[in-house]
Design a protein that fits this description.
About 20% of the residues lie in helices and about 25% in strands. With about 230 residues, the chain is of the alpha/beta class. The termini are far apart.
Length: about 230
Amino acid sequence: MIRKTVDNVQEALKGVQDGMTFMLGGFGLCGIPENAIAELVRLGIKDLSCISNNAGVDDFGLGLLLQKYQIKKMIASYVGENDEFERQMLSGELDVELTPQGTLAEKCRAAQAGFPAFYTPAGFGTEIAEGKETREFNGKMYVLEKAYKADFSFVKAWKGDVAGNLIFKGTARNLNPCMCGAATITVAEVEELLPAGSLDPNEIHVPGIFVKRIFQGKDYEKRIEQRTVRQRNK
């Protein structure tokens, strides 16, 4: 029987080193690999290149790595709600590569599928396309974008089994699936780890072939970036 399980986050992150490139799933604070991020902070590794939709907030998510100046380059689609991210970018302390959100997802998916590059119309005629090959297809111009190359992908799922099969819940099914298998080693942390055969094959979002290590996470905070409520009528 195939078993991809490791006992804890420490074992799951064996092999991470300074200067590596990491993919980290999630959107805002939804579906982020909280346990893996906390362990990266504890390990204190630095000069990292991180590929993620954004960088969390100042005191949560990837913002914790920014606080410790562990990230050298951030590849993301927007700065978001993180003031420290903005400050480091504007001061020149942090190298930032902003990428259209769909292009970022597709660069991960291309890496997952083994494609070295793809053409997209997004960004043509803007500074996004500077220095990149462009080509016309059916009267429309496209930009050649290269797939990402990462050492580790860290993703977070709702349920998983010992063979690495994953199910995501709700909007946590964001960038997590396309980052699975898009790096040399994919580490999945799950809220619930089940025996093989426990998951309905028709409900599995990512098959275990894309996952190298899986462990059951703990102490998930699942923080909301901004909570807006309407006033109750009296």
